[in-house]
Amino acid sequence: MKRIQLIAAALCLVMIATVGATTTVSATQLGHTPTYYFGVTYNGKVVGQVVVNTANAKAPTYALVAYGLTPNTKYTFGYTVSGDMRTLGTASTTTKGTLVMYGTFPVADVKDLQSAQFWVTETPLGSGYTQINGFVFENLGGFVAKVACDYSTDGGVTWHESGHTSGIAIDGYRHVYLSDLGVPNGALVKIHVIVVAGKDRTGSEVFQYKADSSGAAYYNIYGATLTSKLIYLGILTWVPA
């Protein structure tokens, strides 16, 4: 309890010292373990702190504690990096309005960690995940891309990368079934595009994989190898083969 109070007090000092800031970073080390501390915002106000531990290069971890939120309410936790909004998971607050989450942090984003902005947002009441059987993908970029999937079987706490397709060249168009990528039926999924010789792109939209669904999430990607943009275009009705 004393540790939590000290963290809360430190966050208050950060808020006073950095008016208007959405994220704070303190790249301190505990022994030989690189540990980063960030302020987490809700509607522009710092409400908690996330600690990201990068000691394990293959599986960085995060732990979030936020206070003063609406009790017994579902919130989504995520971050913005390189202009892209990405989600880490969804959980409900306690009866006192405290939100606690932990899990793994995407390895691909560790190099941009210090520029990340972390946030929570209230998940709309009654909202659920759109069910899909796969992705429809169109490559409009000047590069070769492969389609994979980040999936979670624990409600978004931890994410894993699936298998991927073969290379899709410029102007290529493909319906990618999640069953072909080895994704477990019922898992939460986000598209993950591997840009060959460039930077991978992961969609911020979260869906649920249902093998008997007739919906497919439609995306295209455009731009150059190092500056590609992934765009979500909606749901297409596509009966599984």
Please describe what this structure looks like.
It is a single chain. Helix content is 7%, strand content 47%. It is globular, with a radius of gyration of 19 Å. The strands form three sheets. Strands 1, 2, 3, 4, 5, 6, 7 and 8 form an eight-stranded mixed beta sheet that branches. It has one helix and 18 strands. The chain has one helix at residues 2-17, and strands at 25-30, 33-42, 45-53, 61-66, 74-81, 84-92, 99-104, 117-122, 131-132, 134-139, 145-152, 160-161, 173-177, 188-195, 201-202, 207-209, 215-222, 229-237. The chain is mainly beta.
Question: What distinguishing features does this structure have?
Answer:
241 residues; mainly beta; eight-stranded mixed β-sheet; six-stranded mixed β-sheet; 1 helix; 18 strands; 47% strand; disordered N terminus
Largest sheet: 8 strands, mixed
What fraction of the residues are assigned to beta strands by DSSP?
A: over 45%
Structural class, please?
mainly beta
**Tally of DSSP β-strands:** 18
